[in-house]
Amino acid sequence: MADIEKKPSRVITVIGAVIALPFIYLLYFIGANQYVFPAWCGLAAVVVGLLIGLSLRLVRKRSGHEISWVIALLALYNVHMSVGGYLYLNWWALPAAAVVPAVVFFIFRRRSFLWRGLFSFTMIFFLGLTMMQIHRNFDFIDKQELCADAQNRLPEGVTLVVPQPLHPYDFGGVPGNDYIGVAYGEMQHYLFTLYLPSMKLIRGDDAKSGIQRVEPVPGKSLLAMPAWGQRGVEETVYLVDPESAQIRETVRIPGCRNAFETAFINDRMYVLCETSHSLHELQAESPYRLLRSLTLPGMNSYDMAVDGETGRGFITDWLSPYLVEVDLAAMQVTRKKWIGWSALGIAFGPDGMLYVAQPFSRRVRVVEPKDLNIVRTIAAGYGPRDLEFDPERGLLFIGNYFDGTVDVVSLADGGRITRFFAGELLRGIWFDAGGDRLLLATGCGVCLADLQKLLPN
Fold first, then answer.
1. What's the rounded Cα separation, in Å, for the pair 181 and 240?
2. Phi first, then psi: what are they for 242, rounded to 5°?
3. 360/341 Cα distance (integer angstroms)
4. 297 and 347 in a common domain
């Protein structure tokens, strides 16, 4: 029988257990996440893995797969993030994934077919998860070398104005104002704003969290900054003074995990929460009382565009194929539109259409909001994530996350006018109409793109 187990030496078993312990630690504490599952699911994966392994030991006396099953179940728990890690490699992911089972199957031949299968499965997704952590956080690579290389690749017209250690995610503010807010990753805990005339970065209060988005508060000189990295059961939105980056008011949102986006309509404030897949309606004035909450379909709510005239919200999900429409007056989901798997940024264009960035399909969908019909598909670079518009020129700017490029597209026909490199891990873009320039949130800091130099005459 091909699957008859050969009892390994005790030394190999002990060495294997010692080597497996760091895998368990990394998969549980680093890989374990609350993007899809609650925190207790990581522990549940460990328990289920142990139960399966111990049950096999009772049935097959020489089975010693307890550790193999634990790390395999933890790998399964993090499979979506692991696949994301391979996406950073583009087509190079294929040989990278294939080499692991090849090594395990052809070198470690003393173990059973089951053991080799479990180990191969685990290592593939463990490596993918590691790549995700490396590229998202820059924790395990030489930042200076990578950023120096990226800076050398910048074209004429793009300059780095606020370098590392700031790892910006996005920008937000009132167009025409001198101060805008800067969203950033979890490595920085202080609130940041940017003074545009001199590109001076202002560090404010300690938020003890990352900030994913920034939204101006209507009628107040404040910026709403949702604290998305806390991942508790009651998240926070900070209302921040743009000139000092100091917290003026703190809004608590019960039932929210990973506050991602805010929007305002009249006397209401809406907060979109990523990992609780929920939308929360609050009073827009102190004491910011929670009025209603809505659980959303899908897996990971990501971005929201709100139509104040019709009272509708449109929400994307990066682990779902649907665009979700919500009637904000009734606080209920009214429609779901299949647009294809995974969508990130969404925004209303100056033409009234919805523009939806789909990173893995390398495209931007143009959706008519009344009937949710897809009227156009615009080709993009690798990983379109954020969108901006120049209404006067009739331009769409697409920020491509994985290849770090910006596509400049004509709204008239969807044709690409030009593409330029903007920096590694391009997460957000902001159009400064007064300066005719783009602010670019990259993994190496804030870059500035002079459109006079980059756009063809």
1. 9
2. -65, -25
3. 8
4. yes
